[in-house]
Structure formats: C-alpha cells, structure tokens
Write a structure and sequence with these properties.
single chain, mainly beta, 8-stranded antiparallel beta barrel, 1 helix, DUF736, DUF736 domain-containing protein
C-alpha cells in the first residue's frame, strides 16, 4: 500500500492533505447528515480547509480484524481518470497523524501485467 495522505482528528472529523504525483490538496472529512438509507456514508469529504469546500467524496466506518477501526474513503473529481479508493488508519503511536493508504485494484494490476 502507498501512503497518499496524512490527517489529524479534529472533534468528530479529520483535516489533512492528499498528496501524490500531480495532486496536492487540503481535505476535510466531516460527519455526514444521518440517513436511514442503507450504506449511506458516515462522512463527507470536502476539498479545501473549510466545510464550504466542494464535496469530492465520502467515507464509511469499517473495522478490520488486524487494523481495527478505520475509514474506507472514496475521492472522485472530473479531473481524475477514476475514483481513488483508500483507507484512513488510526495512528499506532499516540499524537501521530492518521494515515491514508491506497492500493491499486488487483484486477487492474493483473490486466496491466498481461
């Protein structure tokens, strides 16, 4: 997995940066409005440093056997060739940032190797 961002917890949300080749952006992950819709996101992802920034994605609370609690994050934008699907993990050391990791889809990797 490749680290593509670092975030700090602020109240019930997160602020940080998405950084990779060709993309550097301030990002906020804020609680979504509660919904009765099945699989509704737990968080909305906004570009910029305020909640007024454009919505560029969503995140869902997940729990992994080894990782514990984390967020499954999807970021999308017309400038991107496809959505970025990544996971935001809690720090292993208190006071350190949460880390956003991305891994290429296995089916795509297999297709590229042929």
């Amino acid at each position: 997995m490749i680290r593509i961002g670092e975030f700090r917890e602020h109240g019930d949300g997160y602020s940080g940066r998405l950084e990779m080749l060709g993309l550097r952006a301030a990002v906020l992950i804020l609680p979504a409005t509660r919904s009765d819709v099945r699989n509704a996101p737990d968080f909305r992802v906004h570009a910029g440093e305020t909640a007024d920034g454009p919505e560029i994605g969503a995140a869902w609370k997940r729990t992994g056997e080894r990782a514990g609690a984390y967020l499954a994050v999807v970021v999308d934008d017309p400038q991107l060739p496809r959505a970025i699907r990544a996971n935001l993990f809690r720090p292993t050391i208190e006071g350190q940032p949460h880390l956003l990791f991305w891994q290429r889809n296995r089916r795509r990797r297999e297709t590229e190797q042929q």
